[in-house]
Amino acid sequence: MRAPDVKTAVDFYDMYPELGTKEICELFDSSSGTARALKKKAKQQMVVDNTYTFIPGNVETTSAYKAWGIDINNYRRRYERLKKNGMIKSNEPESEEKQA
Predict the structure, then answer these.
(1) Could you list the pLDDT tens digit for every one of the 100 residues in the chain?
(2) Cβ 39 vs Cβ 21: under 8 Å
(3) Residue 92: which residues within 8 A CB-CB, separation 6 or more?
């Protein structure tokens, strides 16, 4: 298992209030077995944080990131720095002039 990509970690944090197996596999580029182990760790953190999910089997994103040691503020700073230096393209669609 590898550390999550900066852009993906920030995007997922903002897009998904809950993470399922599919999102966890994509976030860590891992197998479903690894995702299950990560979900177990996140569910333990959810008990500590007293958080719940709407979909059984999913994990709450904030608690999950905390359990996995992902400091979202650090990831955001890195993401912005990479974007500023042109190493990550923003999510904004290209203008029609650039596409032509």
Answers:
(1) 778 889 999 999 999 999 999 999 999 999 999 999 999 999 999 999 999 999 999 999 999 999 999 999 999 999 999 999 888 776 654 444 444 4
(2) yes
(3) none
C-alpha span between 12 and 22 (Å, rounded) = 12
Strands (E), the chain: 18-19, 59-60
Residue 30: what are its φ and ψ, rounded to 5°? -130, 175
Residue partners of 74: CB distance under 8 A and separation at least 6: none
Query: 3-state DSSP call for residue 59?
Result: strand
* Verdict on whether the full-model pTM lies above 0.85: no
Closest of 13, 18, 70 to residue 46, by C-alpha = 18
